[in-house]
Please model this.
Amino acid sequence: MNEDLQRAAEILGRAERIAVLTGAGISAESGVPTFRASDGLWEGHRIADVATPRGFRKDPRLVWNFYHQRRANVLQVEPNPGHYALVTLERHWGNHFTLITQNVDGLHRRAGSERVLEIHGSLFRTRCTECEETRSCGEEPLAELPPCPNCNGLLRPDIVWFEEMLPEEIWSQAIHAAENCDVLLVVGTSALVYPAASVIPRAKRARQPGATVIECNLTTTAVSSDVDLGLYLPSGQTLPILVEKALESRKFD
Ligand code: BV8
Ligand code: ZN
Model:
């Protein structure tokens, strides 16, 4: 493992442009359940009932309860060293660093990441089902079926449900970052959900030579065949060491 970590740090230290794709696994050590682990979020709820437009139309109260609960849970936890390590990377690579997250938990922003592409939206934003107005909803509690302050229409979480398109502008920025990076770090994702998981093949094949892909996960995943270097330990432990060593090796380049 140490050898791999050293090699990954040298690759990262030499990177001109870094892109990172994160999934639920980076928040696991903060205490936020992942989606497919046995204590996953979907326990007791079928995806179709709580994370699709049809589910919301059928029972908006059930869906809002699911999201109120997740929002309340996330407000009880803190970012972990894995989130903070990515803040350090952003601070050193500036706008040559892009963080693409599938997570809606807001922990990257709370850790201090500034430019976060939240391709699946956020628990801390609502969108009106009538006038489409989006508002950030911080820590204040929301009514059970929150009305739009603008038109009194029913608000929904500003989250991308299954069978919904990703926010166009944010997704095109994510594709641009994936296709122009020379190192892609893939952290804590099973890479089963599309089009998010297409970030990895895009980074590999958009240009020749493609990006070097480093995967940080507990296990190999659906995209491990595209991965050049796998670091299979908890990201809260691996990322801080990886970033520290990358900065050290960068100093001596
Ligand atoms: C779309 C918001 C175009 C919700 C999410 C049929 C009809 C329509 C579409 C489809 C279809 N069949 C397939 C599709 C495409 C579908 C899809 O991909 N489905 C999957 C289930 C196969 N995608 C969509 O629908 C997308 N839209 O395609 O639009 C379209 C439109 C109409 C018709 C056709 C096409 C929209 C996808 C967005 C869905 N919304 N989130 C919410 O969060 O409530 S996705 C949701 O699940 C999360 O955001 C996240 O992205 C995903 C879960 O994935 P992960 O983050 O990877 O989490 P997971 O638990 O799976 O893995 C955790 C990993 O961490 C594991 O590998 C684990 O080993 C690792 N780990 C754990 N602990 C640690 C760790 N690693 C490191 N350290 C640790 N400590
Ligand atoms: Zn409205």
Q: What stands out?
A: The CA atoms of residues 179 and 205 lie 8 Å apart. The mean pLDDT is 94. The longest strand covers residues 121-128. DSSP finds ten helices and nine strands in the chain.
